User: What shape does this take?
Amino acid sequence: MSIAFKSDESFREPFRYSNSDEAILRFPFPFAEDSYMYSVNIEPHVRGGPTGAFQAAFDVDEHYVAECRERAMVLRQDPSRCMVLPHMVPAQWDTLELIMESLAEDYPDQFTLERQGETWTWTNRPLGLRDRFTFGDLRSLPREPFEYVTRQAQGDFTIQDQREGNLFMDGGMVTTQADWSLEFDLGMSFHEWHGPVPVAHELGVFDRALQYLMRIQYGKPVRRLNWTMTVNPRLDTSPENYPVWGPDRTTVTPGNVGDALHLRVELQTLFRLPRSNAILFGIRAYLASIAELARVPKWGRRLHRVLRDLHPELAAYKGLVRYRDAAVGYLAAFDDGAPTGAGIAPDTARLRAAA
Amino acid sequence: MIRSEPLAIRVGAIESLSPTLRRVWLESADSGLLPASQPGAHISLTLRGEHGRHHNSYSIVSACDDRAAYQVIVRRTAQSRGGSRFIHEALKVGDVLQASTPNSQFPLQPRARKHVLIGGGVGITPLLSFVRELRGRDAHVEFHQFAQDAEIPVFERLLEPFGGHGLHVHPGREAFDLGALLDVQPLGTHLYCCGPPTLMETAQATAVALGWPSTTLHSESFAPAGGEPFVVRLGRSGGEVAVGEHESMLEALENAGLPVASLCRGGACGECLTVVLDGIPDHRDHVLSDAEKAEGRLVMPCVSRAKTPCLTLDL
Assistant: This one.
């Protein structure tokens, strides 16, 4: 599969980012209905799904090269965005094996993994890398295995140790996050790191989700979608960096909202890892401006209805309050009141012309 | 790795360890690499027996990174429903079987300061993979295996590759002072036990009486995905669907052409909620409240089963 990588993109000032028509149509639009409330919306992560984003274990798209460069820039400024506790070394090798095997299987033109016993050779063509190392030997790689491989994947990753009937966030690579901090959450249990989320605790969502996640089986990963909104196509909206991006929220006007405001969707995947019995949690962020999404008639209608009717506490938690009215006003022009089809698929092969 | 199909595996070698113990080497039928396994993991083999197919789970005793072949050790039991008898009497080198991906419900605890392993009889099998892994990690391990006299040399030979230090095979349990063993273990020790239920219960009770935290006690139990077979009666259409012991109610309904909307397939999301008209459900989900479960009017067919031979659903 050939991918035209947009290598010149920038996720910080000055921003250079857009989605091709193909990228819009493959977007993992998160709303299956015209309204939104928390639920345990977990399903098996099998290849094949309502849009192109669901066709691989770890999706690679046109933003891959630029996102890997952005990750390297964040890590240069703040190395603490990647941390793994010492007992997670087996989980590090598990992660490396899983991501390398998956990328090589799903994108054989881009990635190759050659194995001769414990001697592995990894070729990453988009990034121009070729490394030979000994699986299981930490000294044979230029970095620790988890950091080495997650620098070559889109999206954030955490690794959860499972013990004492709970999950503990004992490692992660987090540079493209929606306002949460690995340094703050490292070592926390499942309910501790979900502490700030409103409403869902009362619904019992986390108790049920924890029981389910602890039973995830090797070879049978699961996925869910989560979403928020971000002003400008900025991947690194971390608490550490709040002074940089926080003021963006005051810059949205009815005139610029269509291009400035982005729906940020996380395709979250959970994989049981073999040697460590840990769980790898992938948080793959996709950004599309609401003007781009409104080129799909169904999505424009639905996004208008979801934002208009969103529970106030959820709107506050997701940080939408300042610009929600502007977004609803902009999207109203795309909502003719017609019914929308079930599910998240775009229900069209061609986009409306760009405004 | 995403794997929706069963593994096709070929019998590479068979070794008789004793009159009732066989070691079997299982390779990938396409000669490729098998998925890595986990310490303490098992695979479920689909076997032909006298009364049809059986799905038997066996612990993998080979190294996690030995992806050329899984090794399992199978005891022939007198009350075998056919699975272990098939392996002992009929299985030949070159046979191809279906197997699940390795699955672990008995993981090692990486933060333990010391690991004490207690095995009884063929319960040695998951502990063999533990001791291999722990030796590789240079961890502090102590292993006590109980055996009938005739099998002591068999188990000693299985443990031989891991060095003698800290590994013991005992003739029977009566003469062994479990309390004395558990009383002198340092803080931070975890206990793993696999063997006959009486051994696991005794070890657990002894440790609890000595004040071991419950989070440090681990025992292997093959929690069955299925259970007793039962029949689903369809309240609206009037038909019947048999649910076998190794399939879920949801799978049986789907196979009968009655798709029920589902999402997580693990008793967490609530999507497959179905109304019960008659019969008593055996609830195994995390969605329904205790009161709803007691009332028995609703059921999650993805994980739950029936306590009565028949369950009538509003389908």
